[in-house]
Give the backbone structure.
Amino acid sequence: VSGIDREKGLFVIKPSGVDYDKLTPEDMVVVDLEGNKVEGKYNPSSDTATHVVLYNAFPKIGGIVHTHSSWATSWAQAGRSIPCYGTTHADYIYGEVPCVRNLTKDEIEEAYEKNTGILIADYFKDKDYEAVPAVLCKNHGPFTWGKDAAEAVHNAVVLEEVAKMAKNTELLNPKVLPAPDCIKEKHFYRKHGANAYYGQN
């Protein structure tokens, strides 16, 4: 997990290889948008270079999460995007959760984590990264993002549940089709965008 202060151009990220049960706020590492450690006694997460690329490519996000959660990772390992089969998915993610290609051998050897970020950023170049706050990296796992670190974590939890439900849906009906566009759009846009009306003012 990481979270950014856009005014300062700095983000905070978990240190690499430190047990979650032993982490304290003081253990977090502060990094700039070029990937340089600014503050902290530990090395930052090994995925820091991916976060650097995504923060630079997606200026409206404030937090990023990378997990190896079992259901979402299963779809990534299968090399499959997650179709939108119902309103739970549509409430949070507009359309399918994409699965991007494998990195090439050269991309892996050259700069694995940086190129993971570039691959994701390139995929979303002409797409709405706010409407689809999640991606699967083939044979790897999911990345999610949001307006801050808490929303990015929430989107990771949502993604895991959506991945689980999609698999169960296909087990129950192997011929299932994605939800109609009218349902997908109704549920997404009643929560997101200028005319959203879900919740309280």
About this structure: The longest helix spans residues 149-172.
